[in-house]
Amino acid sequence: MTTEVRVPTLGESVSEATIATWFKKPGDAVAQDEMLCELETDKVTVEVPAPAAGVMGEIIAQEGDTVGVDALLATIAAGEGAAPAPAAAPAAAPAATGGSVDVMVPTLGESVSEATVASWFKAVGDTVAQDEMLCELETDKVSVEVPAPAAGVITEILAAEGATVEAGGKLAVMTSGAGASAPTAAPAAAAPVASTGKDVENAPSANKAMAEAGLAPGSVAGTGKDGRVMKSDVQNAISAGATAPAAAPAPVATARPASAADDAPREERVKMTRLRQTIARRLKDSQNTAAMLTTYNEVDMTEVMALRNEYKDLFLKKHGVKLGFMSFFTKACVHALKEVPEVNAEIDGTDVVYKNYVHMGIAAGTPTGLVVPVIRDADTMSFAGIEKAIAEKGARARDGKLSMDEMQGGSFTISNGGVYGSLMSSPILNPPQSGILGMHKIQDRPMAINGQVVIRPMMYLALSYDHRIVDGKGAVTFLVRVKEALEDPRRLLMDL
């Protein structure tokens, strides 16, 4: 009996993914739900578990391949497990003909025509084994590994790091069948990935996360097959306070010519990843497309803080989750959105789509960047339900476990820069949404109350909105209603 392993659902509007890593090979025994491979989309990493126990059969889609939803990845044969596939067979496969073999750019995916050479892990003259990773390419959405098409020696590299290559273009030339032993002098060239001392390449998502965090590969312990470093390992290392060695930037700094300006040796120039370029472009597109404007107000947090302090212990005891400020702000925004529905709407061509629900996006910081999980139907939830949802989504975000569905479909967003100490900011809209509320640091300030100067815990609020459908009156009214609800939380109970 044979069981098929297929691509799972990837999320709304996501139709394809790239195979980043296989953790099993033909002949390996697998247990049910054991992780077989890792797929990468433009936003999340998806693990594919074994649908049944048995023996790994044929692997249909290789690392670096682009696959669609429900595509066949591999097969699993029923059985107790067999001896691992012979290790010596691949070495003998390529004939020692000394023929020339081209290393080509693989298929990059639908509508993706070019990529950037991010890293070469081998140099000219290095001996490589068949399927050993030679380089990594970056597109707008994913990283693609390029394996060696045969065993042999690298004779020429045609596309250097940083070069832009087209799908089907030639990357390098190698001579097949020349040399069978593993390279001994080459590890220096492969240091960015293989510096752990293991003959195992890290997952592309892990390499990218380490580069963004400034971590050296050797500082992160891998939990993948044969000690392979996974993206989750990098996130755990960052959470544990891992820091990059001081000497890590040296190779980059020395790449500048000695005749450059005096400050050049102390500068580090790193090319933006294609993913970061895409993020930058989309943020700028948001500013260029929407008529974005920001209005400000401030809120006295005295009553909310007093109410929270009074009931936080009982709240935790009954609901099993802490009572935070986010549930108050979520409730206040839901209340204000009912009065000013255009802030909860979006533009679709020449139509305005009004939402009769509130899918609240809550921006959350993670070791690898900012994500916005969505709490669906927040307008129907209690304080406890909102706090539980925020806690659960936040934990999944930090662990890199959010699915595409969990980050799509939001109708309004709250961003809390105050947790990082921000006193004032103008948040950028999250298209196609028409409004985003920026929370900030709570700071004691002298305020005039009933003719007396008193010290109150104050917070600045910022509402960025799309002026194409939200007028100034509506935006100011929304922010005033949020302020009123927070300064007198009893208004939320009475829907005032």
TrEMBL record:
Residues 2-77, 100-175 form the Lipoyl-binding domain. It holds the Pfam family 2-oxoacid_dh. InterPro entries: 2-oxoacid_dehydrogenase, 2-oxoacid_DH_actylTfrase, Biotin_lipoyl, CAT-like_dom_sf, E3-bd_dom_sf, PSBD, Single_hybrid_motif, SucB. The keyword Isomerase does not apply. Residues 242-267 are annotated as: Disordered. Residues 242-262 have a biased composition (Low complexity). Keywords: Acyltransferase, Lipoyl, Transferase, Tricarboxylic acid cycle. Its EC number is 2.3.1.61. PROSITE patterns: BIOTINYL_LIPOYL, PSBD. GO terms for molecular function: dihydrolipoyllysine-residue succinyltransferase activity. Gene3D superfamilies: 2.40.50.100, Chloramphenicol acetyltransferase-like domain (3.30.559.10), E3-binding domain (4.10.320.10). Residues 201-238 form the Peripheral subunit-binding (PSBD) domain. GO terms for biological process: L-lysine catabolic process to acetyl-CoA via saccharopine; tricarboxylic acid cycle. The keyword Transferase applies. It is an enzyme of class 2 (transferase). Its cofactor is (R)-lipoate. Pathway: Amino-acid degradation; L-lysine degradation via saccharopine pathway; glutaryl-CoA from L-lysine: step 6/6. E2 component of the 2-oxoglutarate dehydrogenase (OGDH) complex which catalyzes the second step in the conversion of 2-oxoglutarate to succinyl-CoA and CO(2). NCBIfam families: PRK05704.1, sucB. Forms a 24-polypeptide structural core with octahedral symmetry. Part of the 2-oxoglutarate dehydrogenase (OGDH) complex composed of E1 (2-oxoglutarate dehydrogenase), E2 (dihydrolipoamide succinyltransferase) and E3 (dihydrolipoamide dehydrogenase); the complex contains multiple copies of the three enzymatic components (E1, E2 and E3). This is Dihydrolipoyllysine-residue succinyltransferase component of 2-oxoglutarate dehydrogenase complex. It comes from Halocynthiibacter styelae. The lineage of its organism: Bacteria, Pseudomonadati, Pseudomonadota, Alphaproteobacteria, Rhodobacterales.
